[in-house]
Amino acid sequence: MKKLLKNGCVLDPVSDDLIEIDILIEGTYIKKIDTHLPVNDPDAEVIDLSGKFVSPGLIDMHVHFREPGFEKKETIASGTRAAARGGFTTVACMPNTRPVTDSVEVVREILAKAEQAGCARVLPYGAITVRELGQELTDMAALKAAGVIGVTDDGVGIQSSKMMKEAMRKACQVGLPVVAHCEDDTLAKGGCVHDGTFASRYHLQGIPSEAESIHVGRDILLAEDIGVHYHVCHISAEQSVRLVREAKSRGQKVTAEVTPHHLLLCDEDIPEPNALWKMNPPLRSRKDREALIEGLKDGTIDIIATDHAPHTAAEKAMGMERAPFGIVGLETAFPLLYTHLVLKGVLTLAELIDKMTRKPAQIFGLPYGVLAEGLPADLTVIDLEEERAIDPDTFLSKGRNTPFAGWKVKGWPVLTIMNGNITWNQADTALTFGDFE
């Protein structure tokens, strides 16, 4: 099936200005990109994108789809539909499921369910250790052969330096990146928010920034010795940014991601002890947030990832100390970042798109993230002028746990195409609010 996208605006690769262009999709690939492509094929579906911005399909290298094991929170079907609605065509799911994604069988199950759902390309991570217990390494070669793109024990930090070094050596041998949740339990255990202003005001046990940065520093030293690609998950602390910047200056293969919520919020913004504001790592200080923005601008931080982490309403109602960590982010990431970073002059539109498309594809070796003839037809169409308030009641994710409810933002994805197939169309109510259980 052919699709001819007419009159869309794309970023000029030289000037970064918006230019009008037509895109012809044939099957799963981009056949032609040019101005004023003729409408002379009766078999082509013609879609007018006048006034809309066309981006490569967005890529999120850090999501939690909860399946298998926690289907009340999210399923692969509901998670990929949320991803498509948010403009994402490729997502990487974390292994802290039940059973943990530590075996070939679980990897195959995830891939099969993602293929069946068909809404977004799902790339699983495999666990570093069996059951994420930090005691025994997984069979990384078998996991890679089954389709994982990296190894991580996200959700828990590898506490043993010896175990982490052994994991890095094994991952390097099979050609997989080590993707690290950095958290020293001796400093973090029992904490529920950042050890700062909010924790002091409400007498809550805090998690200091050093709980993250100590592991980042340790891992950088270990990775330097091994030579493995080391990637820092959801970086949140100024000291961590400084350590990554120094490692990059020496030419070490260290990369890092940051979430929208850590870029836009700090602990001083938390209005009250409400678990919708509880995530791990926690919202840090204003100084930490400023360091994250600077690190994103200067290239120290490579990409933006949502850490989409759905939970049930009952779980989040348990209070700041007892509720699980995590917020959802797939359906709100782009408009939040466009409104509060691009429109406020912190990043250019080109810089934001690069951090959410080309750069994650580049550092993880994926053949996506670029609009070019002959490449997979992954596209996100965005109405940069559409403005509306974030309404969790309309989410396609099962999770409603967001601190951004009611925020009025611009730049909503209206059409998502993955491998030439429309996976989200705002104009199609059947796609928008169908029964996705």
TrEMBL record:
Entries under Pfam families matching the protein: DHOase
InterPro entries named among the record's database cross-references: DHOase, DHOase/Allantoinase_Hydrolase, DHOase_cat, Dihydroorotase_CS, Metal-dep_hydrolase_composite, Metal_Hydrolase
Enzyme class name: hydrolase
Residue positions binding Zn(2+) 1: H62, H64, D154, D307
Occurrences of domain Dihydroorotase catalytic (ranges): 51-238
A cellular component annotation (GO) from this entry: cytoplasm
Stored CDD domains: DHOase_IIa
One record GO biological process: purine nucleobase catabolic process
Positions with a binding annotation for Zn(2+) 2: D154, H181, H234
Catalytic residues (positions): D307
Enzyme Commission code(s) on record: 3.5.2.3
Reported cofactor(s): Zn(2+)
Residues the entry annotates as binding substrate: H64, F65, R66, N96, N280, H311, F325, G326
Tagged with keyword Zinc: yes
SUPFAM superfamilies, sorted: Composite domain of metallo-dependent hydrolases (SSF51338), Metallo-dependent hydrolases (SSF51556)
Catalytically driven reaction(s): (S)-dihydroorotate + H2O = N-carbamoyl-L-aspartate + H(+)
Cofactor note: Binds 2 Zn(2+) ions per subunit.
PROSITE patterns linked to this entry: DIHYDROOROTASE_1, DIHYDROOROTASE_2
Keywords annotated in UniProt: Hydrolase, Metal-binding, Pyrimidine biosynthesis, Zinc
Pathway entry: Pyrimidine metabolism; UMP biosynthesis via de novo pathway; (S)-dihydroorotate from bicarbonate: step 3/3
Any one Gene Ontology molecular-function term assigned to this protein's record: zinc ion binding
PANTHER family, per database record: ALLANTOINASE
Record family assignment: Belongs to the metallo-dependent hydrolases superfamily. DHOase family. Class I DHOase subfamily.
Function: Catalyzes the reversible cyclization of carbamoyl aspartate to dihydroorotate.
Protein name: Dihydroorotase
Species of the source: Paenactinomyces guangxiensis
